[in-house]
Amino acid sequence: MQYETLIVEIKDHVAKIIVNRPDKLNALNKKARDELNQVFKELAENKEVHVIVITGAGEKAFIAGADINEFKDATAAEMYQNFRPDTIFYELNRLRKPVIAMINGYALGGGLELAMACDIRVASENAKLGQPEIKLGLIPGWGGSQRLPRLIGEGRAMWMILTGKMIDAKKGEEWGLIDFVVKKEELEEFTMSIAKQIAEMSPFTLQVGKEAVKAASQMSLRDGLELESRLFALLFSTKDKDEGVAAFLEKRKPVFKGE
Ligand code: COA
Q1: Measured between alpha carbons, how far is 73 from 180 in angstroms, rounded to an integer?
Q2: What is the CATH number of the domain that holds 144?
Q3: 78 catalytic, yes or no?
Q4: Would 120 be classed as within a structural domain?
Q5: Residue 54 Cα, ligand 1 centroid: separation in angstroms?
């Protein structure tokens, strides 16, 4: 796979996507957004890939947001089209495989929104998180006003979105925006070790597990519990369940095939 704005590496069932515009702090221009949609679509179909990690190139940034240069002459009609939920992060939002955000620096605006659309967020101690759109006379447009309050509560989300102020990774962890904070030099190893642990599980069961957990923020408790019980029962039709249970009883490591 060849991309202009991304580097993609696949090893041990883990795909790592690096947004590669370090001189622009990996700001997402249209090309990068189109390529992200494309790569997520390709990785969704690639059976070798069980887990995806996304990060930014360089020392300073995960992703410093949408490319502000594109806002200068943009019309409302263009933005309405480009920023719809069914276009931005479309392929990421519909992806069934687990996605981990490896936040190695600034995660601002669309960068934080992309991280929030992922399933697990790991950040280095030096990471800075924010929704600074208000300083441009804007509000978040790629999910920030909806996902941030769900993760950290309305008041804190209101403060971040209405002041545009950044928080550090430690505060993000305290508030539930970041799941793990590690030293900068340990970020890669720590994140990839989580990815590898997940990638060893049944790829089919991983997708079902993700579906169940995602439902928690989208359904009533009653509907979510109903869904979970159906998904749990469904897994009793898989060979991977048979293999997992047999391996436990035989005291050996399971070999899952996604069947
Ligand atoms: N869009 C386009 N270009 C961006 C960008 C963005 N969101 N964020 C950073 N860049 C570019 C800068 O314009 C600069 O380019 P240049 O060297 O051609 O002038 C380069 O990346 C480096 O950024 P710089 O501002 O010089 O780094 P810094 O360390 O002084 O500041 C930030 C870092 C993150 C505080 C600052 O870049 C910033 O505020 N960026 C915008 C963040 C934002 O508002 N994001 C939400 C957009 S909706």
Answers
A1: 39
A2: 3.90.226.10
A3: no
A4: yes
A5: 20
State the total domains in the chain.
Answer: 2
Domain coverage including residue 227: 203-249
Give the residue, by CA position, lying nearest to ligand 1 atom 21.
24
Same domain, 232 and 195: no
Length of the chain: 259
144 lines ligand 1 (CB under 6 A): no
Q: What is the 3-state secondary structure (H, E, C) of 97-108?
A: CCEEEEECCEEE
Residues 235 and 218 in one domain: yes
Question: Do the beta carbons of residue 101 and residue 61 sit within 8 Å?
Answer: no
Closest atom of ligand 1 relative to the 133 alpha carbon:
48
Q: Is 132's C-beta closer than 6 angstroms to any atom of ligand 1? A: yes
pLDDT digits (tens, 9 = 90+) for 9-64: 999 999 999 999 999 999 999 999 999 999 999 999 999 999 999 999 999 999 99
Q: Tens digits of per-residue pLDDT, 148-207?
A: 999 999 999 999 999 999 999 999 999 999 999 999 999 999 999 999 999 999 999 999
Question: What atom in ligand 1 is closest to the CA of residue 68?
Answer: 1
- Ligand 1 geometric centre to CA of 110 (Å): 13
Count of C-beta atoms within a 10 Å radius of residue 219: 14
Nearest CA to ligand 1 atom 41: 64
- Asked if residue 1 belongs to a domain, the reply is no
* Known catalytic membership, residue 113: yes
Tell me which H or E stretch contains 192. Answer: helix 187-199
